[in-house]
TrEMBL record:
Entry keywords, A to Z: Phosphoprotein
Name of this protein: PEP/pyruvate-binding domain-containing protein
PANTHER family (UniProt xref): STRESS RESPONSE REGULATOR PROTEIN 1, TWO-COMPONENT RESPONSE REGULATOR
PROSITE patterns from the UniProt entry: RESPONSE_REGULATORY (PS50110)
Length: 983
């Protein structure tokens, strides 16, 4: 991905994309065959460099081009680009310094590094007391890590000016004149620096952001003399993180035994709180270092690495922050920013002021690549603030603000050490894919965060995702393997669930769930996020299990058991019959895997029940627009209580975000009384209820006195046959007029922008599930984004001409059809005759249709399905409540609207989305429309394959055609050839 493009989606990390612009990608290595042999003695140099990079989690290792002599090297430099030249001391036909000069003539800016076998070689090649021919010189110590060090050091020297100015990146100054010691020290420093920086980066960050922040690690600059060291220190003084110096090196053109002491003493005088380190082969310098004061490390190879590690941990802030009193007594400890914030609120005043005055806070934060916060802490020295209480609050506020901003719009890695649900918006447990649903939530979380800076309606209102944790697919895979489970299509859903519930979660997953739940004390929704879910042409909508948890038991282990139970139920649904049937329908042969979303349930307690005041589904494309609406204006299905009402196709209110006051369902008083939502779903919140219960249905009149219902309802006045938009005594009717008519809360404006955001972000039409937690002051309510999925709109807009003859001979005609194309492969029709339709038997109809479907599906015979009312509705009074497994072989569907059953098409249901995504024609036939028709006499006269329980199955002798014009929404069904003539 283009870093610039990613940055536009990631404001907190944008600055990191701009760091380390110069990278060494092409190295020209000039060495004699003998030197090449020595370098390759322990294996390929290139391979070892790659291993070094990967071992330190660094990206893009450079490529090495090797040449045997200087002339060939110069010719290569003329022909192609290189970022770095590394030359050995002994070259045929040209001295090292002469070669370096010629390189400068061709490429003035390219760094040239001398790599020798001994210090003597380096001395022969350059005069240390004059400007050297080479940018730096190193001694080969049979350790390939020197190559990484010299590459990184070349990058640091080129990038330091830009990165310090742009992001206040810190600088470590190493003063060492010996190529041998420099060759030993520099690899050790880089390895320690990279490993420690990775170790202390916020564990909650995702891997991409951790790698980005690595770009802000301190730079290492080297100096070989007192004058060079002072010059570098003065130039980068605001950014100097530490100075590490040898005891003896040149000063005033002559080697000085006291140069190290004088340098560190001078720097201590200028910056009293700077961490200083003296590195010396002379143990007598230990006392001298203590006088400065500076830490002393003797150059003894066997112990130097460990002592450098301790210096990084205890003096440069890479270890725990240990809160101490001025006398050295430990009073607190923090290893993460989360713990740091907690400790700041409790440590004694004397400890707080001591660390502030010594600049310890700034150093510790800077080690974590939080350059902006470190700079602000350093600038606002607490000793300059009057009163420790104010200083403490200010510091805590700064740290918390940073933690909040770092987490928003980002899917972080779950950390048992510093998980904080008040700050963390979206976290992930485990490895692998998070599935389609979770991926959509994470994407929109990022988009919504960006939108706050661009759209006023987002800036002025609280728009967010609920606190979300996703168990990645590795949890499912490890669970399956641990319990030796395997997919078996012969097992019933009940048997599959029993086997899964008897299984045991992996230890690592159980440990993380325990740590997660310790922080969570609100109701939870445990939902599916399969790898195949919510894709553009295969949404798998509503096919998997969802569990609602009250999560309010007093016993923690009881709460944990309930969460584990819910996770295993979602896992089990991966192999249920409906998802399998849908996979067969779309030709999906891949075995699905399941991630699980554990999400804060949106809402608040109303008495003994918990529910959101508003929930719904919004679509950016309206399949059935009515004047003045346009299809692109979108449509919203709105309900009170949990969104089950909408996604299962029950009675809800429809409105267009562009015209929120235009509600065709509510045209007259009779329309309002007939079409208004009568019941809603909520979570029983009292202790005696089943802790893992499904949502329960409540009638509206049961909740008339609850605040949400009162606010969103109008009142029916029977004596006047009027509906008043006020809280007067009388039966309540859910009209949502305070929101849609009086705009007490800008729901329509928010949905309009959310749909635009989703459409532009996903590059197609979208469907969004949402909920609103209504505050006492409606204007301060919170809009929660719950889910996004693409919806299919494409060929529907193409024209397919339907002839007059086809209309005349049609047994089926609709002026309100979805889909596109000519479908010629069906011979079977399954239907429920309207004259025998009984609403009390709709569940029985669904079972019979399911049995017929299984036979036809196995025979690969698609069929036309016709019946009264809304197909797939969970409310059996509105239509036949088939599930996907009951109609998985269907070729086209007809929904009949007549006096007996009037239910408007529910575009927001999961069932509807699965149908349209597969391109299955969906025809609405209204008996009162003279252009719509079904020839029942002809249909009932056909040969019946079966007739049972009010469901008929007929098979024609030859195929019939269903033809849909996607542009005009017109469709016909007619019999082909000879059968048409007979009709």
């Amino acid at each position: 991905m283009n870093p610039g493009a990613f940055a536009s989606h990631d404001p907190h990390f944008k600055i990191f994309h701009e760091l380390m612009k110069f990278r060494v990608q092409e190295i020209l290595l000039v060495s004699s065959p003998y030197d090449a042999y020595i370098l390759e003695e322990d294996g390929s140099m290139a391979s070892r460099i790659i291993n070094e990079y990967h071992g330190l989690n660094l990206s893009r290792p450079p490529r090495i081009t090797r040449t045997a002599n200087a002339e060939q090297a110069l010719e290569l430099l003329r022909q192609q680009h290189f970022d770095l030249v590394v030359t050995m001391a002994h070259l045929n036909g040209m001295a090292g310094c002469e070669f370096a000069v010629k390189i400068r003539e061709i490429c003035p800016q390219i760094p040239v590094i001398l790599l020798t076998h001994s210090v003597r070689d380096a001395i022969n090649q350059t005069d240390f007391f004059q400007k050297p021919c080479f940018d730096n010189s190193y001694t080969w110590c049979c350790d390939s890590s020197i190559m990484l060090a010299l590459v990184k050091n070349a990058e640091d020297q080129r990038n330091v000016d830009h990165d310090t100015e742009k992001a206040m990146v810190r600088v470590i100054l190493l003063v060492e004149d010996s190529p041998l010691h420099r060759s030993i020290l520099l690899p050790m420093l880089y390895e320690e620096l990279v490993q420690q920086t990775l170790a202390v980066l916020d564990e909650g960050l995702n891997e991409q952001h951790r790698l980005l922040k690595m770009r802000a690690r301190p730079k290492i600059l080297t100096a070989a003399s007192y004058e060079e060291a002072i010059a570098l220190f003065s130039r980068y003084r605001p950014y100097i993180f530490s100075v590490m110096s040898d005891g003896r090196f040149p000063k005033n053109g002559e080697e000085s035994d006291t140069a190290g002491f004088e340098l560190l003493n001078e720097i201590r005088a200028r910056v009293p709180d700077l961490p200083l380190l003296m590195l010396s082969s002379e143990s007598g310098n230990r006392e001298i270092a203590h006088k400065i004061p500076a830490v002393f490390i003797e150059k003894i190879p066997r112990s130097m690495g460990e002592e450098l590690h301790n210096f990084f941990i205890h003096h440069l802030g890479f270890g725990d922050f240990i809160f101490r009193t001025p006398k050295g007594r430990e009073v607190g400890r923090a290893s993460t920013l989360y713990e740091f914030e907690q400790q700041l609120s409790t440590v004694p005043e004397e400890s707080l002021l001591y660390h502030a005055r010594c600049n310890h806070f700034s150093n510790w934060v800077m080690a974590r690549a939080e350059v902006s916060l470190a700079a602000r802490i350093h600038k606002d020295q607490l000793k300059e603030i009057k009163g420790c209480a104010a200083a403490r609050c200010d510091l805590i506020a700064k740290v918390r603000s940073l933690r909040e901003s770092r987490q928003q719009g980002v899917m972080t890695r779950f950390s048992t050490k510093d998980f904080d649900p008040e700050v963390t918006e979206f976290t992930r447990i485990g490895r692998g894919s998070v599935g389609g649903k979770a991926r959509g939530i994470a994407f929109m979380a990022s988009e919504l965060h960006q939108a706050r800076y661009k759209q006023a309606v987002f800036a002025e209102n609280t728009v967010k995702i609920p606190q979300t944790c996703v168990i990645a697919a590795s949890g499912f895979i490890d669970f399956i393997n641990l319990n030796k489970l395997h997919a078996d299509e012969q097992l019933t859903d009940k048997k599959i669930e029993q086997r899964f519930l008897a299984g045991t979660l992996p230890d690592w997953l159980l440990k993380d769930l325990r740590a997660y739940l310790e922080h969570i004390h609100y109701p939870l929704s445990v939902r599916s996020s399969s790898l195949l879910e919510d894709a553009r042409y295969r949404p798998y909508a509503g096919l998997y299990h969802t569990c609602m948890l009250k999560n309010n038991a007093t016993d923690f282990n009881e709460r944990l058991d309930q969460l584990v139970y819910a996770v295993k139920r979602v896992y089990a649904s991966t192999w249920f019959e409906s998802p399998r049937a849908y996979s067969h329908s779309i030709g999906q042969t891949r075995v699905d895997a399941m991630a699980v979303i554990i999400q804060q349930a949106v809402g608040r307690p109303y008495g003994k029940f918990f529910y959101p005041a508003i929930s719904g589904v919004a679509q950016s494309y309206n399949y059935y627009p009515l004047d003045p609406m346009q299809a692109e204006d979108g449509i919203v299905h709105l309900a009170t209580g949990f969104g089950k009402t909408v996604v299962e196709g029950e009675q809800s209110l429809r409105f267009c975000p562009a015209y929120p006051r235009h509600m065709p369902q509510f045209s007259t008083v009779e329309d309002i009384l007939n079409n208004a939502q009568r019941h809603f779903y909520c979570l029983p919140y009292h202790q005696k209820a089943d802790p893992i219960s499904s949502l329960i249905m409540r009638q509206l009149e049961e909740a008339e006195n609850e605040e949400a219902i009162q606010f969103l309802s109008s009142t029916y006045i029977p004596e006047e046959h009027r509906i008043r938009d006020s809280r007067v005594p009388g039966p309540k009717v859910l009209t949502f007029v305070p929101i849609l008519k009086y705009n007490f809360y800008p729901l329509a404006a928010l949905l309009k922008e959310v749909l635009t955001l989703g459409r532009e972000g996903m590059g197609c039409e979208v469907e969004v599930e949402f909920a609103v937690d209504l505050a006492d002051d409606p204007a301060k309510s919170t809009f929660y984004f719950l889910q996004i999925r693409p919806i299919v709109v494409g060929n529907e807009m193409e024209q397919l001409h339907i002839t007059a003859e086809e209309k005349e001979t049609a047994f089926l005609a609709s002026q309100d059809a979805l889909g596109y194309g000519r479908h010629d492969s069906m011979q079977d029709i399954v239907f429920v005759p309207p004259n025998s339709f009984d609403r009390t038997k709709t569940r029985s109809y669904a079972q019979i249709i399911g049995r017929i479907n299984r036979v036809l599906h196995q025979q690969e015979r698609p069929f036309l399905l016709i019946g009264p009312g809304r197909w797939g509705s969970a409310d059996h009074w509105l239509g036949i409540p088939v599930q996907w497994r009951d109609i998985s072989g269907v070729g086209a569907i007809v929904e009949l609207q007549n006096e007996g059953v009037r239910a408007e098409a529910s575009q927001g249901s999961h069932f509807f989305q699965n149908i349209t995504s597969l391109g299955i024609p969906y025809l609405m036939v209204r008996e009162e429309d003279k252009h719509d028709r079904i020839d029942w006499d002809w249909l009932l006269a056909q040969h019946k394959k079966s007739e049972q329980g009010g469901v008929c199955h007929v098979r024609l002798e030859q195929p019939f055609t269903v033809k849909v014009d996607g542009k005009s929404n017109e469709a016909v069904g007619f019999v082909q050839d000879g059968e048409a003539a007979e009709k």
